[in-house]
Amino acid sequence: MSMRPPSIRAQRTPLSSSKLHKLPEVYVLVPHSPYSQPFGTPEVINTHAPNSTLSPLTPLRAHNMTSAGPPSNLIKRKRSEENIDGTKKPVTGAAHTVTSNATPGFPNGFFYCHQCNKKRDSSVGLFCTYKIRTPNSVARCKAKYCRPCLKNRYGQDLDEIKDRGINALHKETAGHDKAQGYIFKCPRCLSNCNCRSCRKAVGLEPTGNLTSAAKRSGANSVAVMLDGDVKMTGILPGKGKQRRVFRPPRAPDPVPTATAPKLRMPVSRKPKPLPKSFTLERAMPRITIREFVIRFGKLFDMSRGHLEELEEIGGRRSHEVEGNNSDSEQDVDVEVGWVGETCLRSILVGFLGLLLDSQLELGGKQSKTAIQDAIQDIKASRANLNQMWGALAGLRAELKKEDPHRPIFPDPLPPPQRTKIHTTRSGALNGSGVNVTTTAQLVPVVLPLIEMALGTQAVRDELEEGAKKVKERVREEKELAKSTREQWERAKKNNSLVRFYSIYPDNQTEACARFAGQNSPSRVQTKPEFA
């Protein structure tokens, strides 16, 4: 029972006189019939053809009433079980449906071809299924192509594309709308559309009618011809007959000629001006270090850049000097720059490595351990001059403990008087009392290391190998001189040698070689040969 008045009023039933004053009227909710359509329900339109066989309708359930039949989930399960098939069915193309723009002339609907702009029936065209992404949405491309344009202009078969359907790999169908029942990406989306509008958008003239020209040339379609020449044109509407585009004649290829290689002039660097007080005696220690490194550099790894730094005796100035007092006698050895910090580190590591790897007795196991520690400290110094000198000072102290009379390297030179010194914790000194600010201060320290390295076994072997090469070279020169004299003696016995020698009056060796028939270069090419 409901206290709210229903839309349908029931018939009145007469009551007893005792209850007439209490219930003058009674309203009863009558449910709708399952075989009648209630008011406000949308009409169901049948889209089946008139001659199709219709299946019996499922009885409609009444609204707002309890069902006397089985539960709804049981009905759904039974219906789903009736439609279950054990095999997977392939996806087929969707059947063409009648569009809303169907007319008597175009019963399947019509569209306008993107290529030829003609009105075509929907059954003889393809709709692009590719989805175009825009900043705000994703929509399917609206381009449509008819059968003749696809065949003649692009060499594609409409029936083949439709028969292929959407049974393709996922990567081929990604980004496409599958509602049409096939997958087709139009030439406009592929950026090879040759219609008038698309060519004008890229600054090209319309192609006109190139179908006949494509057939005569044996091309499959117009698109194949345009791949070779994108500017090719055919018969344009209202422009007369087809005209051929004449290309300008190509310039003839240059005749190959034998050209001599261009000679590059050697670049000579201007020497840096040095102070007058920097004499040869002051430069000799630096020259000695350079000659040793170049001669025995292959025994320890030295980069090409570091070797080039040693070529400049004056080097570069790595400190700040006030007053520009470069001619001062007191600071000239340190004010004239030398190599960089990384180059000096490589030199020190190489020299100490020779001492460590040699078979020369350095005083026992304690000395070798001290050299190893010094090498590790110099490598870890990060090109800090004070830390490098601290490692050398520690090595000097260990070597003096074993042999106080052993010649050892001295302290570095003092820094320039007007040098700005920035003291940091990383540059803490090891009790030597000298602050190293430039590599030139360590020249007196590196020089004694050369004397120690000359006594190593590796340097001795290298010197012996060099002496053998010199002896071999001298022997070859003697044999060549002896052979030349023998040829000259044989040539003097021939009377024609006098005329032959007149051709080469300044070079007896060349005359003998030419006379003996050897293939040596001749100074005179135009004079005749003599037997």
Structure, explained:
The chain is mainly alpha-helical and 531 residues long. Among the domains are: 110-193, no CATH class; 282-455, no CATH class; 460-515. Helix content is 36%, strand content 3%. It has 17 helices and 6 strands. Strands 1-2 form a two-stranded antiparallel sheet. Strand 4 (131-133) and strand 5 form a beta hairpin. The longest helix has 36 residues, at 457-492. It starts with 71 loop residues before the first helix and ends in a 16-residue tail after the last helix. Residues 6-13, 44-49, 62-68, 318-327 and 518-531 have low confidence and may be disordered. Residues 240-274 are annotated as: Disordered. Pfam families: zf-4CXXC_R1.
Task: Describe how the helices and strands are arranged.
Blueprint: H1 72-82, E1 110-112, E2 119-121, E3 125-127, E4 131-133, E5 138-140, E6 144-146, H2 147-154, H3 158-164, H4 170-173, H5 196-201, H6 211-217, H7 222-228, H8 280-296, H9 304-311, H10 332-335, H11 341-357, H12 365-379, H13 385-402, H14 443-453, H15 457-492, H16 497-503, H17 508-515
Antiparallel strand pairs: 1-2, 3-6, 4-5
Helix pairs in contact: 8-14, 11-12, 11-14, 12-13, 15-17, 16-17
